[in-house]
Amino acid sequence: MEASAMKGDRAAAIREGKVTLIAADDLQVGDLVLIQAGDVVPADLRLLEAMDLEVDEFDMTGEMNPVRKCPDSGGEVRVFQGTRVLRGHGKGMVIATGEETEYGKIGKVSQAFRKREEDRRIPKRRFILLLLLLPALGVRLKFAPDHGSIYVVYPLLAFLLLLLQNPQWLKRFLLRRFQAKLDKDRIWIRTPEVLEKMQGIDVFCFDKTGVLTSRVIQVREIFLGGEPLPIEEVKKRPIGDLILTGCALCHDHTILQTMALMNPLDRALIAFAEAQGISLEELPRQYQRIDHQPFHSEKRHMTCGFREISSGRLISFAKGDPEVILRKCRRYLTSEGQPRSLDGGFLSALRMKMEEMSQDGSILIAMAFCENGPPPSSPHYTFLCLFRLENPLQPEAQAVVRELNRRGFRNVILTGDRVETALRVGADVGIEKAENFYLTGRVMETMPLSELGRQCEYVSIFSRLSPSQKGTIVRLLQQRGHRVAVVGDGTNDVIALKAADVGISFFAQSSPLAKRAAQVLIGNLNALLELLDGVRFARRRIQGLTIALAVLFFLFLGVDFFLSL
After folding, report:
1. List of domains in the chain
2. Against a cut of 0.90, is the pTM above it?
3. b or e along 207-232 (b: 16 or more beta carbons within 10 Å of the residue's beta carbon)?
4. What is the pLDDT of residues 14-44, one digit of tens each?
5. What distance in Å separates the CA atoms of residue 298 and residue 146, rounded to the nearest whole number?
6. CA-based nearest residue to 58, from 461, 514, 497, 417
7. What does the pLDDT look like over 188-231, one tens digit per residue?
8. Do residues 482 and 202 lie in contact, with contact meaning Cβ atoms separated by under 8 Å?
């Protein structure tokens, strides 16, 4: 999230029919604001006009890919404060500013719940209980000739009574004892109260990207020559080198540029080519770029032309939306490298595969090539293949969620990502009813809270959520008698993490705000099960220590009484 979106930024607002640069802090609800590529959005806007507008919303929604914004797509289209405009320009009406924006709500919650020093003073009312020892002390002083033991026994009795009345001391003591073991399991608990809160948890709410799935997009399947092909088989096919070379060359960056700065889709295809044996260092010495048409949201594709340095052969690659790429092709290559005309059989098989692949929310990218230089505008490319890309599950996600199911916990996904993707992930990890019931943030806005609370009892997948909507779902579950733990790693999870009975985040990949908001930090999802086991063990130890202290209290009191006779 861009900090500059909060203070010191200037915004292009339309006032009295003129475009005026004003301080972002001076914007008011109802102002018209212009945004363009490179801008940090200064307030929450309802988009009125847009031209080729794409916004990076990862921090707000968890959506990894740039989000295309078009007010003609139906319904109200919003652009959130703090997100960055990557491409195009647009005009929007301010609907929230300052702390009323989604970003402001996150910051407000984070400030309100900053770590405070624990108040370790004993309440005065606890000392009143020590008066219960006075009758026994009076009898002891009156009838016992030896008062020496009084100075040992009664301070000890008073200390035991205070321990029994302050169980958090026992919890803090045990937590310190167990912290070495917890450190080995990559678990850190902020306060001893978490041990008690975890006992009543019956619902786990998971963010998707970065929690159940990796943040890295990967190639998962290839459709080549009219048939699906496992990715490990590509290298073995006659046209495998051509496909992998296209993956490594066809993008908007120089080949040696840091991959971390690339579009996630470009990064995925380059990583796929490298994993299959393509040398990224050798390619610049083999191919010279001679033509480049960058990706454009309206055209939905990009092209790159190259000259093979050793032979002088010219070759161009195109990649993008499958339907757009198909319109540029008149032939396709079989898996054996034979050119064929685009006939009805191939197109039918390809579109059936595209429909099948897209049903689970996967990303589809098509690639084509043309020899002998950049082609004319008429269809002149040869279709190469179709890629299916997705965020793979975290290695331990499925096992952890299914074990939680087995132990009787209810599991829910709260994400800002697409419905199809959330449904697929929910089904893959084994969340109950994931394929049958879901709600989106837009639908939630039209529902009364009473109805939304009722549906929260059986809906397991919530998608396209804003950060505040995640917090709303957590609070509604709590109002219906549930104890909720939230597992999240992003800025967009902060409100839900703080609203939860127990907020859980990660040591490494979580945002600073998420770490600050969480009560528990873990190394990976497997540590959730270790945490539950540790809490159960700690509870037994606390109960055992409490009973032992009570027995000691009455034992000392009884022994002292008989000694006084």
Report:
1. 3-112 (2.70.150.10), 176-214+394-536 (3.40.50.1000), 218-390 (3.40.1110.10)
2. no
3. bbbbbbbbbebbbbbbbbbbeebebe
4. 888 888 888 888 888 988 999 887 788 888 9
5. 97
6. 417
7. 888 777 877 888 899 999 999 889 998 888 898 899 887 888 88
8. yes
